[in-house]
Design goal:
- There is one protein chain.
- The protein has helices at residues 44-51, 76-80, 98-108, 114-127, 143-156, 173-188, 200-206, 224-229, 234-246, and strands spanning 4-15, 18-29, 33-37, 59-64, 67-68, 83-86, 161-165, 193-196, 209-214, 217-222.
- It has 249 residues and is an alpha/beta fold.
- The protein folds into two domains: 1-82 and 161-222, P-loop containing nucleotide triphosphate hydrolases (Rossmann fold); 93-158, no CATH class.
- The strands form two sheets. A six-stranded mixed β-sheet has the order 6-7-8-3-9-10, sandwiched between helices. It has a four-stranded antiparallel β-sheet with strand order 2-1-4-5, covered by helices on one side.
- Helix 6 links the parallel strand 7 and strand 8.
- Helix 3 packs across helix 4.
Length: 249
């Protein structure tokens, strides 16, 4: 069985009186593609941020290849370089070209020489089919192209797992397709990924396993066909029906 890359054990996250995560546990193995989905405010983004240690969980543990990232004294800056994160909002620096946006982390975080960083950044742009736009600034790129640069930025760091926080939610339907095609290609290449998304037809095609989260708890886990044909929980059944009806499927 493939090695567990990223694991959460009994994760809780409180924001004052609001409990965003309530005892979430999961494992992502080498080469797996998992999708987490659920209503707005269900805890998806908080879960991904806690897994990447961008947000510190209130309670529970996160492990990266067996190393406990929530233990005292862990070098979180170093750990975060091993976990790619693609944000919901497209957070590119507008004064930098696509190439320099991708190269920046390599130079600043990994202390890579400028030319080596630019070469590696170009390889990452090529992987998402954006090398022709390497010298373009974000203002001259479509939203879908900008998000593909964001994916290249994550890829350039050679992460062991990539987390996607609803990567198409800020895009119109025409641009969503090109980003999903890029993620599909990464799945075919065997990348280890956890994707928060409401794009159910994409999830059905690309995911090895889906997880339904609501009110801070994972209520149901199973293969995609389970959610499309026979969800086990009434809450997941109602949510899937609404999603598919909304998309006219």
């Amino acid at each position: 069985m493939p090695e567990v890359v990223l694991e959460a054990r009994d994760l809780w996250k409180d924001y004052g009186n609001v409990v965003a995560l309530k005892g979430v546990s999961l494992k992502i193995r080498e080469g797996e593609v998992k999708v987490v989905f659920g209503p707005s405010g269900s805890g998806k983004s908080t879960l991904l941020r806690c897994l990447a240690m961008l947000t510190k969980p209130t309670k529970g543990e996160v492990y990266l290849r067996g190393e406990c990232l929530t233990a005292p004294g862990v070098d979180l800056n170093k750990a975060r370089t091993r976990i790619g994160f693609v944000f919901q909002q497209i957070l590119l620096f507008h004064h930098l070209t696509a190439l320099d946006n991708v190269a920046l982390g390599l130079r600043v975080v990994l202390k890579m020489p400028k030319e080596e960083a630019r070469k590696k950044a170009m390889e990452a742009l090529r992987e998402v089919r954006m090398e022709k736009w390497a010298d373009y600034y974000p203002a001259h790129l479509s939203g879908g192209q900008q998000q593909r640069v964001g994916i290249a930025r994550a890829l350039a760091m050679d992460p062991e797992v990539i987390l996607f926080d609803e990567p198409t939610s800020s895009l119109d339907p025409e641009l969503t397709g090109e980003v999903l095609d890029t993620i599909r290609q990464l799945a075919k290449e065997g990348r280890t990924m956890l994707i928060a998304t409401h794009e159910m037809l994409f999830a059905r095609e690309a995911a090895d396993e889906m997880m339904f989260i609501d009110n801070g708890k994972i209520l149901e886990v199973g293969p995609p066909e389970q959610f499309f044909t026979n969800p086990k929980t009434e809450r997941a059944r109602r949510f899937m029906a609404r999603l598919l009806e909304k998309r006219g499927r």
